[in-house]
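User: Just a sanity check before I run the rest of the batch. Below are the structure tokens for the first item. I only need the designed sequence back.
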């Protein structure tokens, strides 16, 4: 049997805290002394490195029973446990709505019209509350059927049909906003190195993204600001991007009791990402305090730990607070294995890159090498290609400086080969632009220089070339660090 068994994949995707919760869930939902069959099946599958269906047939409690039936039961129990572990107000309300919709046909069949009317009114209120217009339309259909059974139909039926038309308009707008957001996020997702700006421009031409638009729901308003924030970030218009992420935070803060913690945290995180890009770090402390307050009851939870420490890292790096950065690196390294279980590849690479750049600026070259190698030997991922490609370019400058500082390079180290490999990799990924080509040509010339004087001349030319293209490339990863490095050498040479 292949590794494509869906239940096996589901179990292998669970984090350690999720497995612990499932086992507690199984214990609490079993009245017998012995563990239920599905829990024993879970334990066997969880222990398997490679899926082995033959071994499952040997489990004593499963002998003579349908394996596919037991696997189905286990899958259902895992999903039930996860739904309880990660409760969401909106999803809880929608679940209650669906339960109410199950009862309505039964009430209609047994002619319990007054109870049915109350049920529909209560469900409609909940559907509007969570802006679930799909279910609201279904409720209105049942309300029409109920009204048809009553003596006085005309006025009530007209009101329902008006409500139905309004609901369909809201649903249409909701779906359009959601699709526009999906389209723009698809174009910029995973930190793509080449973003189709022209395609994004076409998306924002939509009538629903005009400045004076009237919103039919709070969800539409949120999607509008998210789309506009992404658009302005792509165009490096951080002033307008900041305006829209601030609007998202304000929407949440109007009534925090009705907002999911995760949604509010996400709005604050998006706000700080834009503040970071806009180099507006004075706004960080207050927003960070708000995030910490959201999760004050579980500040040591690994997911909260990740959010708070990554944002603190960005803040302290830009405030040049060396001691604070070193403390964060120490804390993150101590929980690195645990952290990697809950954060995606892109965030892992972002940590590595930020640590590497910090050690580069503080001239701790052995630490730079350690984090650089982590990035360059990273398993294949589609996330954060910008970091992977920038690190390939950065290694050329790093190994030159590493050797210059008296550190020993491996005997088989071939700098010329690294330069050419880097050039090909960048070219194949459409990232061999003016900045990258300038660095590669300079490194090639340095490697072929006959003496220190020639090297000095090349570095002087490199710094002058980088100064000329600063405005065009200052947002490119590694540009400022390499410019600062060449500037320091240039100043030293001049003196």
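Assistant: Here's the designed sequence for the first item:
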């Amino acid at each position: 049997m292949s590794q494509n068994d869906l239940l096996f994949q589901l179990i292998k995707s669970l984090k350690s805290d999720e497995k612990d919760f499932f086992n507690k869930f199984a214990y609490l939902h079993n009245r017998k002394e012995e563990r239920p069959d599905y829990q024993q099946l879970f334990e066997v599958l969880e222990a398997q490195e490679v899926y082995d269906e033959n071994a499952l047939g040997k489990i004593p409690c499963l002998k003579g029973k349908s394996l596919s039936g037991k696997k189905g039961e286990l899958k259902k129990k895992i999903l039930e446990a996860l739904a309880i572990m990660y409760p969401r107000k909106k999803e809880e309300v929608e679940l209650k709505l669906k339960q109410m919709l199950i009862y309505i046909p039964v009430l209609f069949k047994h002619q319990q019209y007054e109870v049915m009317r109350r049920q529909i009114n209560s469900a409609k209120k909940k559907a509007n509350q969570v802006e679930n217009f799909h279910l609201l339309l279904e409720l209105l259909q049942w309300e029409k059927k109920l009204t048809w059974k009553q003596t006085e139909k005309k006025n009530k039926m007209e009101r329902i049909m008006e409500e139905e038309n309004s609901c369909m308009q809201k649903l249409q707008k909701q779906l359009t906003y959601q699709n526009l957001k999906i389209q723009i996020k698809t174009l910029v997702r995973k930190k793509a190195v080449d973003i189709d700006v022209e395609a994004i421009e076409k998306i924002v031409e939509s009538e629903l993204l005009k400045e004076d638009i009237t919103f039919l729901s709070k969800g539409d308003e949120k999607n509008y600001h998210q789309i506009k924030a992404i658009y302005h970030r792509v165009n490096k218009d951080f002033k307008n991007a900041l305006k829209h992420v601030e609007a998202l935070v304000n929407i949440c803060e109007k009534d925090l009791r009705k907002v999911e913690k995760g949604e509010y945290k996400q709005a604050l995180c998006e706000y700080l990402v834009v503040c970071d890009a806009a180099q507006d770090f004075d706004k960080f402390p207050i927003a960070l305090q708000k995030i910490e307050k959201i999760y004050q009851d579980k500040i040591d939870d690994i997911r909260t730990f990740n959010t708070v420490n990554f944002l603190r890292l960005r803040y302290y790096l830009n405030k040049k607070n060396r001691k604070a950065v070193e403390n964060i690196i120490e804390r993150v390294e101590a929980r690195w294995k645990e952290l990697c279980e809950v954060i995606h590849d892109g965030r892992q690479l972002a940590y590595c890159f930020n640590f590497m750049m910090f050690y580069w600026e503080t001239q701790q070259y052995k630490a730079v090498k350690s984090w650089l190698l982590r990035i360059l030997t990273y398993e294949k991922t589609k996330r954060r290609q910008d970091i992977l490609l920038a690190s390939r370019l950065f290694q050329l400058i790093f190994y030159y400086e590493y050797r210059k500082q008296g550190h020993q390079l491996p005997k088989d180290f071939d700098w010329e080969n690294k330069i050419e490999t880097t050039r090909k990799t960048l070219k194949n990924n459409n990232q061999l632009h003016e900045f990258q080509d300038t660095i590669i040509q300079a490194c090639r010339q340095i490697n072929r220089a006959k003496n220190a004087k020639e090297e000095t001349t090349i570095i002087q030319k490199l710094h002058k070339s980088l100064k000329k293209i600063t405005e065009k490339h200052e947002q490119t990863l590694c540009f400022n660090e390499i410019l600062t490095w060449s500037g320091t050498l240039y100043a030293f040479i001049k003196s």
